[in-house]
């Protein structure tokens, strides 16, 4: 970029190599914005950028791992080196883990907190002040229906999405009248790799809930953001799930979700190495009595 050149507004999508992020990037590009695609996989990013360019859009790729401390700085460097500023930030990078919190590997659980919460927060807080100064643009954060209830056997994932929704909705309110919008998108299950990589597709809850297409979620997210919405809940089934979570008392909801997200072969949370059903979950055993009798 030469001195005196104007910076151009771009839509920056973190988690754009596949799934919902890729679909949002495609919708934004169709709207005429240059899009900056960010994720770890260079090959998948290049393919996503080709799709956008073949459809007449403009796309840049930035391979970055947002579990690394300097990723946000790397992104800012890329933008300024290419004469761009972040007009709209889409935080779609995230992963889920299914299983007991006392059994799942600690590093994977802390990594989830790092990506789903810390990286999203850092990017949002680094890029929002510029948007407010320019009085335009905003942030789309991917939450989930999981943000509306605790989720036994996906405890950290649900908690991370609770953070995303709370943070995003509060920012939306703080930034009213500034010209900047913060929108939280809260879909139910979407047909992407997330369902397999998180292990969610192996449990009853995700088998019974209908799945949305990423393109549908992306259209709703983009339109909702453009019209200044605080919260976008794509699809009727997600709205009904959230209504159910609000109406059913936790004393009923938590055992129900726990039962629907647990697998009979899951290792027992007490650490015996046996399956839950043959250990603390066996008829007549409470966690306490079984632990003491080992
Ligand atoms: N699918 C669902 O059922 C569902 C429902 C509700 C909410 N959501 C949320 O929607 C968001 C997108 O999910 P999805 O379904 O599109 O998942 P996905 O298909 O697994 O895509 C996740 C994206 O995040 C990127 N990513 C993962 N780790 C990263 C890292 N360390 N640094 C940078 N990028 C990283 C991935 O690319 P690389 O692997 O190339 O890095 C990929 O582009 C997530 O926050 C998820 O929690 C999903």
Automatic annotation (TrEMBL):
GO MF annotations, alphabetized: oxidoreductase activity
GO cellular component: membrane
EC number: 1.-.-.-
Domain of life: Bacteria
Keyword Kinase: no
Keyword NAD: no
Keywords of the record: Oxidoreductase
Pfam family, one: SEC-C
Family listed: Belongs to the short-chain dehydrogenases/reductases (SDR) family.
Entry protein name: Probable short-chain dehydrogenase
Source organism of this protein record: Rhizobium meliloti (strain 1021)
């Amino acid at each position: 970029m030469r001195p005196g050149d104007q910076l151009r507004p771009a839509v920056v999508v973190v988690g754009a190599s596949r799934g919902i992020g890729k679909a949002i990037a495609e919708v934004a590009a169709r709207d005429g914005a240059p899009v900056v695609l960010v994720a770890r996989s260079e090959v998948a990013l290049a393919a996503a950028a080709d799709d956008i360019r073949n459809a007449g859009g403009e796309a840049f790729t930035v391979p970055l791992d947002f579990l690394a401390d300097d990723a946000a700085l790397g992104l800012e460097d890329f933008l300024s080196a290419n004469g761009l500023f972040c007009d709209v930030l889409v935080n779609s990078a995230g992963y889920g883990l299914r299983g007991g919190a006392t059994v799942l590997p600690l590093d994977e659980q802390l990594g989830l907190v790092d990506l789903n919460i810390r990286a999203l927060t850092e990017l949002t807080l680094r890029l929002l002040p510029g948007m407010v100064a320019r009085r335009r643009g905003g942030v789309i954060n991917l939450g989930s229906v999981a943000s509306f209830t605790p989720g036994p056997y996906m405890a950290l994932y649900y908690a991370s999405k609770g953070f995303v929704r709370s943070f995003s909705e509060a920012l939306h309110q703080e930034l009213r009248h500034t010209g900047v919008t913060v929108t939280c998108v809260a879909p139910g299950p979407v047909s992407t790799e997330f369902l397999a990589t998180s292990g969610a597709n192996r449990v009853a809850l995700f088998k019974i809930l209908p799945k949305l297409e990423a393109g549908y979620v992306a259209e709703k997210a983009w339109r909702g953001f453009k019209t200044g919405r605080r919260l976008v809940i794509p699809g009727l089934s997600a709205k009904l799930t959230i209504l159910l979570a609000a109406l059913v008392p936790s004393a009923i909801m938590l055992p129900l979700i726990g039962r629907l997200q647990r697998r009979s072969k899951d290792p027992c949370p007490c650490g015996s190495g046996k399956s839950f059903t043959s250990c603390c979950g066996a008829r007549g055993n409470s966690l306490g009595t079984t632990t003491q009798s080992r």
